[in-house]
Design brief:
With about 100 residues, the chain is of the alpha+beta class. The protein has one domain. The chain contains four helices and four strands; from the N terminus they run αββββααα. It has a four-stranded antiparallel sheet with strand order 1-2-3-4. The longest helix has 16 residues. The two termini are about 15 Å apart.
Length: about 100
């Protein structure tokens, strides 16, 4: 599993389970929420995430700005959202095995 993540852009911790990728080295990178195999977009970019976290939207439901594609992590989000994904099922099976074995 470690080799799978070895070439992925590193994630820089922000708060709790929220991370921003260190690549590309430019503004506008999305914020990810990562908990075990559950990986989702949590903000389209840093400002969008901060507005959402601090209640800056004041109860309004606004459409998300476009989300920049980040290699590896964008694909991980898509796999997590795809009910038919073989990778999603493999991850789920691995987690279930670990729970049964007490790890």
């Amino acid at each position: 599993m470690q080799s799978t993540f070895a070439d992925a852009p590193k994630l820089i911790p922000r708060v709790r389970l929220r991370y921003i990728p260190d690549e590309p080295h430019e503004s506008g990178n999305p914020i990810f929420s990562v908990m075990a195999s559950d990986i989702i977009h949590y903000g389209a970019n840093l400002i969008h995430w901060l507005e959402r976290e601090r209640g800056g939207l004041q109860g309004k439901v606004n459409p998300w700005p476009p989300i920049k594609e980040i290699r590896f992590w964008g694909q991980a989000v898509r796999y997590g959202n795809d009910e038919g994904s073989t990778v999603r099922h493999q991850i789920g099976a691995a987690i279930a095995r670990r729970k049964r074995s007490g790890l």
